[in-house]
Design goal:
- An 8-stranded mixed beta sheet has the order 3-4-5-2-6-7-1-8.
- By secondary structure, it is α/β, with parallel strands linked by helices.
- A hairpin with a 5-residue loop joins β6 and β7.
- The chain contains 6 helices and 8 strands.
């Protein structure tokens, strides 16, 4: 399903709603160009999971770990600087992807297609620029239906 986010506040709120539907062991592949809102959506997810510290793109560190409650974690990976799966494995990316006690957000997932194909709980989310402030956000149909049933945040519109 495809949604329109009218501004950054709406994207943040959508991430917070999305967090209610996530479970440990899930991996979210956040696909989109630079500036498409991947990190902003990640920040909303972190807030929705109860993390209230700073959430920034781990472009230079590649991975960021956010502790949650009950021994759970949110892992945020930015693979922009990773060239291929061999480099990802050398960095230990597989340990983040297959942690059953964590939710893992992956920016630039196209760098590790074979690793992601092994993931049983993979959710693909596509983000695209529509205008300076608006973004198209595409999620799996079942997830979109649940978001609609929960009530969409202000500034989020269902496109299809």
């Amino acid at each position: 399903m495809q949604f329109l986010s009218t501004d950054s506040k709406a994207s943040l709120a959508l991430g917070q709603k999305l967090a209610d539907l996530l479970q440990p062991g899930m991996v979210l592949a956040l696909q989109g160009d630079l500036g498409s809102g991947k990190t902003l959506l990640s920040r909303g997810i972190a807030r929705g999971l109860g993390y209230h510290g700073a959430v920034t793109s781990p472009t230079f560190t590649v991975a960021q770990e956010y502790p949650l409650t009950e021994g759970r974690y949110l892992y945020h990976l930015d693979l922009y600087r990773i060239q291929d799966e061999e480099a990802a494995l050398a960095f230990g990316i597989d340990e983040f992807l297959f942690a059953d006690y964590a939710i893992c957000l992956v920016e630039w997932p196209e760098r590790i297609p074979a690793l992601l194909q092994q993931q049983e709980k993979l959710l693909q989310i596509n983000l695209q620029h529509r205008s300076e402030t608006q973004r198209d956000i595409e999620v799996p149909n079942w997830l979109g239906k649940q978001l609609c049933e929960m009530g969409l945040p202000e500034g989020i519109q269902l496109l299809q």
